[in-house]
DNA sequence: TCTTAATGTAACAAAAACATCATAAAACAA
DNA sequence: TTGTTTTATGATGTTTTTGTTACATTAAGA
């Protein structure tokens, strides 16, 4: 599991400190000093997390976050914002825009790393661009295609994401709420029951070769993607 | 998973609305109208989240938050503050004091519930997810599966919870009331004898390989999960 | 042995959880 | 713009689960 963190911070000493702490802990780091530079780095393969200085010259930190959260593919990348003490305004706007957490400068590396861990744990490892295959059901994230025994399957974007998530997290029950968080994303207000419908559509889409059995209902708990019989 | 939410709000209609929405979603609720009343409710077992009206008479909402965040034990309870539109001052002070998020009145229940979800997930550390195994009987909390010598077993949610509890607390007698507290949860009114029925169902479910002997009746006391012969 | 309290069991009705469908709104493409 | 696809939701139908009751069985002491 690659764990790549993009550090967007214009002050070199702080950036260095962050990079040092991160690499110490085994993360790969990317660095950007400006808004433009950051955008250059946010391409596939996407980083797994972005540490974003809110105080970029021209307030472009907020700008960047907003932009990322609007794009379907970058929306999932968790963002931890770095704010100066007292810049509470920023925190508010940050949470409004969809940042996942914030850390106030000056911060201890320990605290920061703890928050990174927490945020990462609950986010999808989007890094895997590899083809996933289970019992003849193939999903290729790169070409954005699903095939069952070489037959192409048709499904909507949400079903694709749902299947992608399931296939990369098999043998594990997810409650509807967890699925909403992981597939729809945080800060989205959708009914629990909506998950049912998409599960239904996904099952239908992959049912031609009997793959719908892979998606199992776990009563009272949620859904599970499993190749074992229930 | 206990999900108890304390609602601190002096206006009855809003409090009612909140409580209704929360219970609709399966949360247990506690209510408080004033600062003092709130303090009374914040005792063990601590609520898992506090919805705090910032506009309590006398500004005591802020007071309360500050106090909670200063105490070692209550500090970790996440707080979502309810602010009136435009009261940016409050939001700022709220975050300064340590609130975890805020919602602006008037708010949609949907948004509120989504934020509750997000905040709870942030704070709840994943509880024991280890597989438990006793004499070939395996329970995997992650995939939510029970197998006996590799054969999958079928049981209802309550039986699963019951078995989970037993397996993580073996060699110890539990009275029916204790089982109700631990498995069904507190403040649930259910007959004692109902436990018998679920014990019966659980035994039946795990009996294929003789594991029903693990659940032993202790006359006059309750039940015990034990790998030793009785 | 008999009595009695405690526990086991099956059946049933009510509630809860889930599946499915139709529809309207939203997003998207032509 | 118009037409098409996708999405979210409420309504409704279906299945599973749950709690309770009534009766059967068991264990322990008198």
UniProtKB/TrEMBL annotation, chains A, B:
Chief location category: cytoplasm
Keyword S-adenosyl-L-methionine attached: no
Domain of life from the UniProt record: Bacteria
Domain Response regulatory: 4-120
Annotated keywords: Activator, Cytoplasm, DNA-binding, Phosphate transport, Phosphoprotein, Transcription, Transcription regulation, Transport, Two-component regulatory system
Described purpose of this protein according to its UniProt entry: This protein is a positive regulator for the phosphate regulon. Transcription of this operon is positively regulated by PhoB and PhoR when phosphate is limited.
Protein name, as recorded: Phosphate regulon transcriptional regulatory protein PhoB
Species name: Catenovulum maritimum
């Amino acid at each position: 599991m690659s764990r790549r963190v993009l550090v967007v911070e214009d002050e070199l000493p702080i950036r260095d400190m962050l990079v040092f702490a991160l690499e110490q802990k085994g993360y790969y780091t990317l660095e950007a000093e400006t808004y433009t530079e950051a955008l250059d780095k946010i391409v596939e393969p996407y980083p797994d997390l972005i540490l974003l200085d809110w105080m970029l010259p021209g307030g472009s930190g907020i700008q960047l976050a907003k932009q990322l959260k609007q794009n379907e593919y970058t929306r999932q990348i968790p963002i931890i914002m770095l704010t100066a003490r007292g810049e509470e305004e920023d925190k508010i706007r940050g949470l409004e825009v969809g940042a996942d957490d914030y850390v106030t400068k000056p911060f201890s590396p320990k605290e920061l790393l703890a928050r990174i861990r927490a945020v990462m744990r609950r986010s999808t490892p989007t890094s895997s661009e590899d083809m996933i295959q289970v019992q003849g059901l193939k999903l290729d994230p790169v070409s954005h295609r699903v095939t069952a025994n070489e037959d192409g399957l048709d499904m909507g974007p949400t079903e694709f994401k749902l299947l992608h998530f399931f296939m990369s997290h098999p043998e594990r029950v997810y409650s509807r709420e967890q699925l909403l968080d992981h597939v729809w994303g945080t800060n989205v207000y959708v009914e629990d029951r909506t998950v049912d419908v998409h599960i239904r559509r996904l099952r239908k889409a992959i049912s031609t070769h009997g793959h719908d059995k892979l998606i199992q209902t776990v009563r009272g708990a949620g859904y599970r993607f499993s190749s074992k019989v229930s």
